């Protein structure tokens, strides 16, 4: 039996100036992404989780269906630490003062898709402050039909662990579990070769054991193939108004944010396969 894995945290061209994966090619056909996932990797499904928006949802759905794989519509939302209506200039230098945390949401049915649209819309119409932010009040109101993953290093759980606050991380995980229900919240674990990721992987595994919240492995894909890392880097420069030779600019310290094979992901995270 072939190894089976589904990429659940992925960014397309609609993660503007951050995602380097097209959905439709120049001829109006499903892009190379779907050829890779459906034909080469033979994965049964694929998710879209662009930053704060669902601009690519319809294109993605069509292309996935055309390619014979199950489309999973999602979004990586920005969650305000308190109220989405709080738009003061927050100082990021202290532990509790951040403008938002990341959270990965996936629609598991049509009700979830409708609720995801409501959540994303609230981010733009009510919570926009540099980013389209939502809050836990919105998540509680529209959480039915959704699966939530705890997010990347900018997620609330991971951020707390990076600061050495294991209790805060556990409380955040339990709160999200209560919002989405015990069967619909997962602790997200990644290893793109970043030092901070490797630092908290043991803590995430321990947190999963202590709370009985299952783990899910993702790769936070931002580009199609490993060699596309340079293209993604150029996009970041355009988005931030910086030059490639600027050593202080925003950049990814890894070229592993691409669509890795099932075998590669399972080799990296055998514990997630077992669980």
Automatic annotation (TrEMBL):
InterPro entries: DnaE2/DnaE/PolC, PHP_dom, Pol/His_phosphatase_N, Pol/histidinol_Pase-like. Residues 6-81 form the Polymerase/histidinol phosphatase N-terminal domain. Coiled coil: none annotated. Pfam families: PHP (PF02811). Gene3D superfamilies: Metal-dependent hydrolases (3.20.20.140). GO terms for biological process: DNA replication. It comes from the Bacteria. This is DNA polymerase III subunit alpha.
């Amino acid at each position: 039996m072939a190894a089976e894995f589904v990429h659940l945290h992925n960014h397309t061209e609609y993660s503007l100036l951050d995602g380097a994966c097209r959905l439709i090619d120049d001829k109006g056909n499903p892009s190379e992404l779907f050829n890779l996932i459906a034909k080469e990797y033979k994965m049964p499904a694929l998710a879209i989780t662009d930053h704060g928006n669902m601009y690519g949802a319809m294109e993605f759905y069509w292309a996935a269906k055309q390619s014979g794989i199950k489309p999973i519509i999602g979004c990586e939302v920005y969650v305000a630490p308190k109220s989405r209506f709080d738009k003061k200039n927050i100082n990021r230098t202290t532990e509790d003062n951040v403008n938002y945390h990341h959270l990965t949401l996936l629609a598991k049915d049509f009700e979830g898709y409708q609720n995801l649209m409501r959540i994303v819309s609230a981010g733009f119409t009510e919570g926009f402050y540099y980013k389209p932010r939502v809050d836990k009040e919105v998540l509680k109101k529209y959480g039915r039909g959704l699966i939530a993953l705890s997010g990347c290093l900018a997620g609330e759980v991971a951020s707390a662990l990076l600061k050495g606050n294991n209790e805060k991380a556990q409380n955040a995980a339990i709160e999200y579990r209560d919002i989405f229900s015990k069967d619909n919240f997962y602790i997200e674990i990644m290893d793109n070769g970043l030092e901070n990721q490797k630092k908290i992987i043991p803590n995430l595994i321990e947190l999963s054991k202590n709370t009985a919240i299952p783990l899910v492995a993702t790769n936070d894909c931002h580009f199609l193939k490993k060699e596309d890392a340079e293209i993604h880097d150029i996009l970041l420069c355009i988005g931030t108004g910086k030059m490639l030779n600027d050593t202080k600019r925003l950049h990814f310290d890894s070229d592993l944010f691409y669509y890795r094979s099932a075998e590669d992901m399972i080799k990296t995270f055998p514990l997630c396969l077992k669980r």
